[in-house]
Amino acid sequence: MSLESAERFARLTALLAEWQGVWRPLPFRHRCLPWEARFPGLASRLRGLDETTLTRLQDAPFEDSPLAAWLPVDELATLVDLPELGVGHAEPPAAWGEHIGGRKWRQIVAFARRMPVCADQPVVEWCAGKGHLARTLSRLHDCDVTALERQVSLCEAGRNLAERQGAAVTLARQDVMDSDASRLLGTDTQVAALHACGDLHVRLIELIAERGGSLTLAPCCYHRTAAERYRPLSRYARRLTTERGLALERDDLTLAVQETVTAPRGDRRRRARANAWRLGFDALQRDVRGSDAYLPVPSLAHGRMPATFVGFCRWAAEQKGLVLPARIDGARFEREGQRRLNEVERFELVRHLFRRPLEVWLALDRRMRLEEAGFAVELGTFCARDLTPRNLLLRAKP
To answer: Which of 370, 367, 364, 1 is nearest to 206 (CA)?
Structure first.
């Protein structure tokens, strides 16, 4: 294991453990957060933030942060500062991005240019979808690529695209979680996985560690896992988390992927309104039940949202078997929901400071698992965060 991996991971573990009482509680669920009594000055400072400062810190939580008076902002910023991994290939023609969304295409280009490929060795794309990355790699390196995808419709669409573009890509229907997926990997296999989620990329890492080959991986959605509690992949991480008392639940892992910089403005407005309505209903249900406790409500797609706040409250109450009064002071509770949203957005800035540290911590655990198996591993970024916040890249070779 590299000294850099171990030291960075150890310090991140110490900070995540020391400050877990601050970053773990969800402001959405608490009208008064558990840590406010310990840090009343921090709570007061957050409530007093103006909109300009709020927006700036949401976009860049470590830069000139007024929270540094209470929290280890500078050290966290240093620990998440990773290098951009080098580019090894020329940029492919824009015409190759036909049938691919512009942002997705730019992510594929950034990833493909950083994947080292030997054209005479097998290349596999893991969880390929329609095989957009596979086609790009095939044309960029003039090689055959096998793209693994579970869904029949995506395989068929991928085959049609590969044939139309003349790319030497084989779309193979394969559930990568099945035991027979290992037959497709070997000591000379070069595997690419761009934003493979949760258990899907963990499965790949374990197979590579056991069977060999090389790996270029951009992990994503760490919380999409069957296990309710996170079990570190590396022996070093398991020992250190036990010593430090850092036991992560599946819900904790969602923090690592909460940053979004790609949502259209309209989507952000609709999400803000939905969140304000949920918080308004939360205030209403606490009043009706006579219990100052959060009541989780199922999610609802934008197209199915009721037209009014009161309509939403009645829908939410029905989901939870709660009987509301015939008459509701909707205006009062809607105002309270907006007030709470303003407060929640400010208190979420504390969690924002630990969001990237947790993601880097998880990526380091994956790096160390491969290093313990004898691989040489690089960890860095493959694109700017405004293209995708999930811009971490692992490159491993025997």
So the answer is: 370
Q: C-alpha angle with apex 389: 147 to 116, nearest 5 degrees? A: 40
Measured between alpha carbons, how far is 376 from 383 in angstroms, rounded to an integer?
22
- Chain centre distance of CA 51: 26
Cβ partners under 8 Å of residue 277, min gap 6: 309, 312, 313, 334, 337
330 within 8 A of 316, measured Cβ to Cβ: no
Under 8 Å between Cβ of 363 and 257: no
For residue 88, name the pLDDT band (cuts at 50, 70, 90).
confident
To the question of pTM greater than 0.90 for the whole model, the response is: yes
For 146, the enclosing helix (H) or strand (E) is: strand 145-149
Determine how many CB atoms are found less than 10 A away from the CB of residue 299. 8
Q: Which residue has the tokens 């229907």?
A: 173
CA dist 294 and 172 (Å) reads 46
Rounded Cα gap, residues 320 and 292, in angstroms: 16
Query: What tokens were used for 18?
Result: 């020391």
Q: Distance between CA 28 and CA 351 in Å, rounded?
A: 12
Q: Which of 106, 164, 178 is nearest to 135 (CA)?
A: 164
pLDDT tens figures, 173-199: 999 999 999 998 999 999 999 999 999
Phi then psi dihedrals of residue 179, to 5 deg = -65, -30
Phi, psi of 102 (to 5 degrees): -60, -45
What Rg value do the Cα atoms of the chain yield, rounded? 23
Three-state DSSP class for residue 307: coil
Are 223 and 248 a contacting pair, CB within 8 Å? no
CA 282 – CA 288 distance, rounded (Å): 10
Residue ranges of alpha helices (H) inside the chain are 3-18, 20-23, 40-47, 51-59, 73-79, 102-112, 132-141, 152-165, 198-211, 235-244, 250-253, 265-289, 309-319, 330-372
C-alpha 114/C-alpha 88 separation (Å) is 6
C-alpha torsion angle, residues 156, 157, 160, 165 (rounded to 10):
-140
CA quadruple 83, 89, 91, 97: dihedral sign: negative
CA-to-CA distance for 137 and 115, rounded, in angstroms?
9
pLDDT at 261: 63
**Helical residues (DSSP H) of 186-329, grouped into ranges:** 198-211, 235-244, 250-253, 265-289, 309-319
Report the alpha-carbon distance of residue 136 to residue 164 in Å, rounded. 13
pLDDT per residue as tens digits for the range 231-250: 999 999 999 999 999 999 99
